[in-house]
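Bench log. Compound arrived from synthesis this morning; before running ITC I wanted a structural hypothesis for how pyridoxal-5'-phosphate sits in the protein. Inputs:
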Amino acid sequence: MDINSKQNFFVGLDRELERLKTAGLYKNERVLASRQGAEVVCDDGRTLINLCANNYLGLSGEESMVRAAIDATERYGYGLSSVRFICGTQTVHKQLEKALSDFLGMDDTILYAAAFDANGGLFEPLFDENDAIISDALNHASIIDGIRLCKAARLRYQHNDMADLEAQLQAAAGKRHVIIATDGVFSMDGTIARLDKICDLADKYGALVMIDECHASGFMGATGRGTHEHHHVMGRVDIITGTLGKALGGAMGGFTAARKEVIDTLRQKSRPYLFSNSLAPAIAGASLAVLEQLASSTALRDRLHANTAYFRSAIAALGFTIKPGTHPVVPVMLFDAPVAQRFAARLYELGVLVTGFFYPVVPMGQARVRVQLSAAHTTAQLDQALAAFAQAGRELGLLDTTGVA
Ligand SMILES: *Cc1c(COP(=O)(O)O)cnc(C)c1O
């Protein structure tokens, strides 16, 4: 450190930001002037069909959610000004934890301010240097960070590769406890973890299984309980983390669900729980209303999957390359980063909001726009979006039209 050290610090940040801009990696935030929904209004006054929210069940901007949040606020107030264990637990928090446990088929549930906190506070209280965590190579940043905070040995298996997972289980044979950690659904590709196989391998080696259900809770599986329902392994997954900020209402908040002794331990020792404020009552009450709605009807989940099937087959018929699958995340592959950026910009002009993803968010040469369907989209909106994709694709020379009459 010298007398210029502080000045150099800020100069260094400026240089790095310039480097990001030059490399095309600088992220600008889109500013909305409306509620979240199938259509949104941007701050420039344009109305756009929104194909890039995690608003899978279409609840984020719904009047019913606003009412439920207001009702809970009127009853329980604006906030707690406390962590849970001092004076920050209300009946609504206990009701929501019970409802989440029932919905997910688990013993007990603990709430966090975010799923990032749920994952960040999960591993360190439960595992130490005697143990091992085996993690899918494409796991979410919050799982990676949570594992980093824990002293357990870290092993990685190739994405969704069961032979490699088994090799890692064998490599961890000398450890006391071993846990396999994976996203239930991987958000960049819409890939579903091979959870039936993972549970079989876990049983074979005596390992635990943890899944992060942020892109699954509320709509995967016949009644929307998640990837464990989708793969018929309810009761065989040991720990489930998830968010209230995507399908289950869209505000914010996270949770971990597991056996009672795991949740009790987290309540005693998990740092983001012990040292961070209670979930706002508005969110707890509205999330509870969502779970009641999902328990009484699969209509939203069914509508989402119908929209997904419709969009997937129509976009492929137009000649676009998509990653195959059944999830409402539909990667429309453009491969080249500048093309993905131009394509997303043209769609914006044509009234469709999507984001281009390119390296380092996805592998080099795998640039894409990621479409996310919602139960809130009408068929007319999807048709309008598809027409815009077709126009932008033709203009940019992305569609092979030679066979078209
Ligand atoms: C979105 C997401 C998170 C973070 O959820 P928050 O509640 O917004 O913190 C964690 N894991 C995965 C897989 C996600 O997609």
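What the model suggests: The chain has a mean pLDDT of 96. Residues 114-116, 140, 142, 183, 187, 212, 214-215, 243, 245, 254 surround pyridoxal-5'-phosphate (CB under 6 Å).
ITC booked for Thursday regardless.
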